[in-house]
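Example 3.2
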Amino acid sequence: MPTALAPLPALTTQAERLIELGLHRQAGVTEAEVRAVARSGGQDGLLVIHADRVAASALAPLMRHGQRSGFVVEDMTDVDAFAPVEAAAVPPSPLYLLRGVDRGDEMAGWSPDEALPAIVAADRTPLTLTEGIHWVLQQPDALARNQCFMTIGSRLRRPDGRLDARTPALWLSNGTGRDGAARRDAPKVGWCWARNRHTWLGFASASGRSAPAA
């Protein structure tokens, strides 16, 4: 039975977390700008820094699960080349908000190719990889053993225009293979094939994205 998640921290609390991690400096924005976007965002949502400002490879090591730090799998050296698909268009602003974030546990056992049309048909948008990492930064319990999620809003487009068959995901390492035993239970950025199904991966989505008011 999937475990229900607590509400996200308040946006003002999320802002302080991003500042504590120094991500505002990497993004080229001030502490005041981060706080202002949080204050203007209302009561709920997820505060996100645009991937053009802070890439997935820089965010991943900041994730925590217990005492374990996050990492990107060794065979995903091109992780920062994964970009939003049309169904996950991101506002151009340095900071923006996601609304109605959900892990998509009910889709566990589906393939990414099956899940994307269903998410779009429900008038929702799939999370991108950096959005998923932001979620874990603010709410580590979004990743639980056998209850993790894919971020199919990000895909890699090949030079010939076709999509690469890999789809990014976030889960907890088993500490096997090249991960190494020291990384057991660490938050992990990895990938799965677009046509494969995994019973322990849902499909994270949101009800929408919005840029901060001018």
